[in-house]
């Protein structure tokens, strides 16, 4: 029986296998190279992914066993331990922690994937396995790009992850966007995305959100869906912008980059 969780779990597996193949060959100098995350070296991205895998696994284990909920300081203790590691330990720790998380997701049968509810700690109520896996995939796929682009300037977000990230990214915009960069301007753009094809609206004002296509848009953004995901998360710098990205209307692509500075 197919479930809502199957695709994101499969994408987490393929993403892990691809990134792990790269990470296993990285030496000490490689690990301190700049990544696609402007404030982090490659090893720091791996630390973030590894600590996140550990936290996700702990939350999933609590849900599976009915154990005591994680205390409010659990995440801080995990982050502090990973922050204290050396770059090679970040790489080795990532490989092990993320493997364990993916294998735990894969071990869940269809009934558990449908019925289990997981408290992620930052949402108002527990979520199903598919939603939890998509949140993890959003984090993983973007930071996988951060690592890979440090060695390949033409890297893209994994194709199998892109369609699965479109729904979570809409919820993320309200948290990561900086509408104050528009100095009070209110703009409604039509989004024309491809691969996969999507027609949406992007409302920029006091809040930034995805909407239905506006009847009378102020302008239009045309882009591959993969490029839009990177734009929305601060990963579409000029040197990493593919052909086919165009913006018309009152805003430029540079204006949009300021609205979406990344995380």
Automatic annotation (TrEMBL):
Protein name: Maleylpyruvate isomerase family mycothiol-dependent enzyme
Pfam families for the chain: MDMPI_N (PF11716)
Entry keyword set: Isomerase
Record-level Gene Ontology MF annotations: isomerase activity
Domain (Mycothiol-dependent maleylpyruvate isomerase metal-binding) ranges: 12-148
Coiled-coil residues: none
């Amino acid at each position: 029986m197919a479930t809502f969780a199957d695709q994101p779990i499969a994408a987490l597996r393929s993403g892990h296998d691809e990134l792990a193949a790269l990470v296993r060959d990285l030496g000490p100098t490689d690990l301190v190279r700049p990544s696609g995350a402007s404030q982090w070296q490659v090893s720091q991205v791996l630390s973030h992914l590894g600590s996140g895998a550990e936290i996700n696994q702990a939350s999933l284990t609590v849900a599976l066993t009915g154990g005591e909920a994680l205390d409010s300081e659990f995440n801080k203790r995990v982050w502090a331990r990973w922050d204290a590691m050396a770059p090679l330990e970040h790489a080795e720790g990532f490989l092990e922690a993320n493997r364990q998380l993916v294998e735990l997701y894969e071990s869940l049968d269809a009934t558990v994937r449908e019925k289990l509810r997981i408290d992620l700690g930052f949402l108002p109520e527990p979520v199903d396995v598919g939603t939890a896996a998509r949140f993890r995939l959003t984090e993983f796929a973007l930071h996988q790009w951060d690592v890979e682009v440090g060695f390949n300037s033409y890297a893209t977000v994994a194709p199998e992850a892109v369609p699965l990230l479109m729904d979570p990214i809409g919820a993320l915009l309200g948290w990561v966007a900086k509408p104050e960069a528009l100095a009070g301007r209110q703009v409604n753009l039509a989004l024309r995305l491809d691969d996969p094809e999507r027609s949406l609206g992007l409302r920029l004002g006091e809040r930034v959100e995805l909407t239905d296509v506006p009847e009378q848009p102020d302008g239009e953004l045309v882009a591959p869906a993969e490029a839009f995901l990177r734009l929305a998360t601060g990963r579409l710098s000029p040197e990493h912008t593919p052909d086919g990205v165009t913006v018309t209307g009152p805003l430029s692509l540079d204006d949009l980059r300021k609205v979406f500075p990344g995380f």
